[in-house]
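Ticket closed. Logging final result for Triosephosphate isomerase.
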Amino acid sequence: MANQRKFFVGGNWKMNGDKAAIDGIISFMKGPLNADTEVVVGCPQCYLMYTREHMPANIGVAAQNCYKTAKGAFTGEISPAMIKDCGCEWVILGHSERRNVFGEPDQLISEKVGHALEAGLKVIPCIGEKLEERESNRTEEVVFAQMKALVPNISDWSRVVIAYEPVWAIGTGKTATPEQAQDVHAKLRQWLRDNVSPQVAESTRIIYGGSVSAGNCKELAKTGDIDGFLVGGASLKPDFVTIINARA
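Final structure:
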């Protein structure tokens, strides 16, 4: 079934870039890119329209966050409806920086995911453990709790791509070994099988994030339960094309 799950590579630009930098990214995103890989880039919200208008049409564009309602007195927030109005179809939610820098709890993230799906967006919910949680053998406890919070608000699993990102590996240069990453992905898939359905477990893409690079992507892509990547800093550089083509 792994071969039936389309390989997925997302780029999370975080709070980086300006129009000139985006133009540079667009120039190398013309590829060639593996046609069997779905590609989405997550850009700062002020550049959603610019990126969508200039990025090749075969590449999706995602917001990096949104709120849980369509409109209202929520200064500084954007809604799924606004993201769609900019011509974009995707949103990244629950990234570890939203959880750990901005203090977003599991329940809020779940509500955001639910509203985004209701509004018609496709969603990349992020989960993952911190270093102290891994070192105290709590990885499964943490990621399963994060998944349990998400499930009640997921109305359409076909529009969900789960991103497992161990927090200790994000931007640190440390990467989970292919064996470590595959182990967590396999356990997450079994959790879906046990707590949602076998069909959802087999069809849902679970991607890996955490210092993915041109140097390690091919080994990570060979594993049975890693269905792609969510890439941070490397998505701003031409190496991103190598990562997209990891299974080429």
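Strands lie at 7-12, 37-42, 60-63, 90-93, 122-127, 161-164, 205-208, 228-231. No further action required.
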